[in-house]
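Quick board copy: two proteins, each given as sequence then tokens.
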Amino acid sequence: MTVETTGLTEAILRLKSLPDVVRARLTGQITAEAIRLQGIIKDDKLSGGVLKNRTGRLRASINYRVASSAQSVTGIVGADMNKAGYAAFHEYGFTGTEQVREHLRTMSVCFGKMVTPREVLVRAHQRRVDYPGRSFLRSTLSEEAEGIKSRLAAAVAEAATTEVSS
């Protein structure tokens, strides 16, 4: 009996290239998921869903990045602390003592009555703060986790079957 195989070399090459193909497909899908999460956070959570948009600085600080190595592909969505250092204050909340710097304040109401607006000096002081967290990053990820997992699994399966069958 004689057994003859054809295409064995091509099949081995395809299987060896499979991790690169899967990583590339996974990188593309994770990038798409990060962009999608960024949009949900900006358009829903920071536009009245969790926090109201006052100056736009927190919304503008929301960014994403994707890093790929031989072992992993990582997508990160977060706030740029250089643009909005108070993002963690809103995300996690804060209980403690806060230092208030001396500043000028425009006073237009005094003892419940309207007065001619004028600037008054507020001296430096400490104040006790008990601010509950209003998560906009972690809550979005937990709400979207199942969909993200299923789309990533589908992307890996698609990459594996497309590469092996072609």
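And the next:
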Amino acid sequence: MIRICFHGAESTGKSVLAAKLGWPWVPEYGRDYAEQHGTEFTMADLLAIAEGHESRVEAALAANPPLLILDTDALMTAAWAEMLFGEIPGKLLAYPKADLYLLFDPDLPWIEDGTRMFGSLADRARFAAIAEAMLIRAGVPFEHVRGNWTTREVQVRNIIASLT
């Protein structure tokens, strides 16, 4: 079983590609949480998001697919904690890690969807830097995904093909 996590700032194509690729995937729990509870997050909300997402991952792993795409994980929630509150609870760093992280660069146009928060160029750059720093801090393998939609899809498909 190979777990690949899509990681990065908002509006970078993670969810769109995860749904489009055709492999089993775990949708982002945080989006559903924000749509239900709003985006005035507390640290308790972020911890609940990480727990809810991990429950989805565990359910997907029960089917034992050879490859599983994770549309984010607790490391991205840790990046949110850093971005919003300037601190990272250790619990967010303790969740199981993916085998490979694909770090989506913020080089696509921003699309507001009602749950996104950091659309300015400065905020997007800061969030992207925090997301990358989180991967480095966790010591996990990652590769950048960048460019237009077509380029991103080709990059992701090629990376996945090289692992299967």
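Board note added afterward: The domain at 2-163 is CATH 3.40.50.300 (Rossmann fold).
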